[in-house]
Amino acid sequence: MIKAVLLDVDNTLIDFNKSAEWSMRKCFEEFNLEMTDEVIPTFHKINDELWRRLEKGTITKPQLHTIRWQTIFDELGIKADGPSFEQKFIEYVPHAGIEVDGAKELLEFLYGKYIICYASNSSKYQQMIKLTKADMLKYADHLFISDEIGVAKPAKEYFDECMKRLSPIKKEEVILIGDSLTADIRGGLNYGIKTIWFDFLKKGKAEGIKPDYMVESLEEIKPLLLDLNNSI
Length: 232
What we know:
232 residues; alpha/beta; 6 strands; 49% helix
């Protein structure tokens, strides 16, 4: 029986993409820069690659924040101070608090039935602001934030710490829900935790990784969990 749910935050509960775009527009206006149509897709391309490198351990989070916007500006041919822009960008992002469709309804369903754990590779400072802004902090029994744990998903040590804090619950009684195939799904599968891949970007396929379950909307998770527990 599933007793605890590990929930990723960005692009699972909080719409990071919309929040980032909101922050970008504010920053471009503040820095008197022209925000062309190429900015948003270039941001996502470079940001996704940097986060993949972070998950692999080839860069640190401080390094990501140092190079992210400078790399974007260099590719776009924009003359601007990347590190200064980054500082303002990460200051704005959490204040958007834009939730993914169905996130609040999912949390209302889970609350009181399962131990709810927010599992994130973002900073605690940012997630506390986002979750408070979106009125989601009240549902959490645990916050498993990589900055505090000292290692990020998908590392085994990250999940070791999660399970230590969830004791005496066993890994067979835990399910992880997240949008990232590399950080969430691969991490959970490698650790022996059941996984639900939330295909937030509507990719339609899992690119060589085989999640236990796949959903395209958060509304699909409630009946899935009910069926899963009833079948055990």
